[in-house]
Write a structure and sequence with these properties.
about 230 residues, alpha+beta, seven-stranded mixed sheet, three-stranded antiparallel sheet, about 35% strand, flat
Length: about 230
């Protein structure tokens, strides 16, 4: 007989300091366990945006994505319960990390770990970069004036690999910005961080391969409305 425990908690994490205009992040936990699976899924929601319709659409999108992940995992865990190694359970962990929250721009990164049998699980990152004043979710290309940014980013990535050769010595492929990387980035302080998922450039245990690139060196290529990220 299965025993399922469901706990939903919501706490307000106020990261605004003295700036009452800064967007606040609320975090909730959906956590439950069955005879063959364990789930701990964090959900984030935003408050404090001027446009509540836009705020609600972002929050609903995040909530629905997490709910979809839970449904898909429960189904897969049920199917694979006999294939999990003795003493183990299928696992789903979802967490969020706020990387940037200033100048009407938010970068948050969802990290999702799934194990449903086999030697190890899989981990992916799913960033969400939000232009609050522009009321849209931003892709990498949206930050720049034209397609010339691709060659610039590739040049800067290659330069970083040269300057930090020990950090990148175990890569089996050359990193290049492609269409599939339009969402694989986030802003972190004064850096644009381009990252590659596990297995893209190296073995799984290597994890995510990141290339933090200084925003001030990219300002000449960026759209005027996004140069505010540099200040």
């Amino acid at each position: 007989m299965l025993r399922k425990i469901f706990i939903l908690g919501m706490v307000v994490v106020c990261l605004c300091g003295c700036d009452i205009r800064r967007i606040r992040t609320e975090r909730g936990i959906k956590e439950y366990e069955t005879d063959f699976s364990e789930v701990k899924a964090e959900v984030i929601q935003f408050t404090g945006m001027n446009n509540t319709d836009f705020e609600n659409s972002i929050n609903d999108e995040i909530e629905q994505a997490v709910e979809s992940d839970l449904v898909a995992f429960d189904s897969q865990a049920t199917e694979n319960c006999d294939n999990v190694r003795m003493g183990n359970k299928c696992v789903l962990n979802i967490s969020w990390d706020e990387k940037y929250n200033a100048n009407d721009f938010i970068s948050v990164v969802e990290e999702k770990y799934t194990y449903t049998g086999g030697a190890h699980g899989t981990t992916v990152r799913i960033p969400k970069n939000i232009d609050v004043s522009g009321e849209k979710t931003v892709k990498l290309s949206d930050l720049f004036m034209d397609d010339g940014y691709i060659s610039t980013l590739n040049r800067m990535i290659n330069a970083r690999m040269t300057d930090h050769s020990d950090e990148y010595k175990d890569l089996w492929a050359k990193p290049e910005i492609k269409d599939s990387h339009q969402t694989d980035f986030y802003i972190d302080n004064d850096k644009l961080v381009i990252f590659f998922q596990p297995y893209d450039l190296s073995y799984y245990a290597r994890g995510f391969v990141e290339f933090p690139l200084p925003l001030d060196e990219l300002s000449g290529y960026m759209k005027e409305e996004y140069r505010r990220l540099i200040t």
